[in-house]
Amino acid sequence: MPDETFTQKDSIALIESMINKAKNRFGENGFLYLLWGWVILFCSLGQFILVSLLHYPRHYLIWTTTWLALGVQFVYIYQKRRKKHADKSCDG
Residue 84 to residues 27, 37, 66, 75, 87: CA-CA distances in angstroms? Predict the structure, then answer.
C-alpha cells in the first residue's frame, strides 16, 4: 500500500469537496426531510393536546396521518423520477 501524504491544501480541498457533495445531496432531498419533520411535529403536538387537554382515549390515532405523508412522499418521488427520466430522454 503506497504511503500517501496530503498537504494542507489537499486536505482542505478534500474536506470541501465532501461538504459540497453532502450539501447537494441534502438540497435534492430537502423536501422529504421537511415533510417528515413537520408531520412528526404535528403528530407529537396533536397527541400531547389530545392526551393532556382533551383526555381523548384514542389519542394515538393521530399517527394515522403519517399514511397521508407517505402518500405525498410516493407521489413526490414518482414525479421526480419521471422528470429525471424525461430530462434524460430529451438529451438524447
Answer: 16, 25, 27, 14, 5
Q: What is the helix (H) or strand (E) element at residue 36, kind and residue range? A: helix 8-52
List b or e across 30-44, with b for residues whose CB sees 16 or more CB atoms inside 10 angstroms: eeeeeeeeebeeebe
Low-confidence ranges of the chain (pLDDT < 70): 1-3, 25-28, 91-92
55: left (phi over 0), alpha (psi -120 to 50) or beta: left
Residue 39 and residue 65 in contact, taking contact as beta carbons nearer than 8 Å: yes
- Rounded to a whole number of angstroms, the CA Rg of the chain reads 22
Which grid coordinates are listed for 9?
Answer: 491544501
Amino acid type, 52: S
pTM of the entire predicted model: 0.68
Q: Between the CA of residue 1 and those of 4, 6, 7, 11, 65, what are the distances in Å? A: 9, 15, 19, 19, 54
